[in-house]
Amino acid sequence: MVTFGMSTFITFGGIRPTSQTATNIMAATYCFALQLMMLCVSVQFFYRYLIIVRKVYITNFLYFAMLMPPVIVATSITAYFFYAIQNAPSCAEKFLFYLKENSQEGFVPCVQFNIKIMGAKVLLIITTNVMVTEAIIIIIFNLLVYRYLSQKAAFTSTENSIQQQLSATLIAQLCVTGFCAFVPAICMLVNAILATEMAWLPVFSVCVLSLSPVVNPVFTVFTVKSYRKVVVYVIKKYVLRRPGATVEISNVILRSATK
After folding, report:
1. What is the three-class DSSP state of 2?
2. Residue limits of CATH 1.20.1070 in the chain
3. Which of 19, 55, 94, 114 is deepest in the core (most CB within 10 A)?
């Protein structure tokens, strides 16, 4: 993604479409994946609320049913995004000339997203409202679970500790996903509104956007105590190679093999 004047241009490397329609479809697919990733975060909090507070037995069918609202919303936003870019002006000739200078191919895949166009403005408003609504839903369900655990649940200290770790993990994942999605979007939007041409900003945005799938599992591993102990054990045994080292995992002592 590159900002040029008041527009944001989506270009492609690797798998490169060979027509404008294929380019728009690929851009819409990227939009769908990003929206679905963001919207499915709230499903984890709703799932936890059902099994802890409401004591609902979650079947596979019910879990897939909970995924349907995010899929429907993401599909609707993507459909409007595809409609907006299909009816948007073609990429600026000046920008296409710049791209062709760095490409050996005749057709350069490019999608222009101009915030001056009404369709782009409506799409930004819809997306912002959806994200704010999701944040409110997450906060509400997390507070309901926290209140139940702190006041009504008769859990043991171990169970409470596990639930606290899970809460911290979910919140950390939410923060990472929000940071990796919203910060690049804000950077690109500000760059387009101010009509600046900062070459480092698109590179920074794309790098941050790619962090979420990597950082989220790392937060999970090091926030949940049992996972963290397994990682420490593996590091001590196979990386540091300390024979005889022991580590307790879920009240079970694992002893490394001695030479």
Report:
1. strand
2. 2-220
3. 114
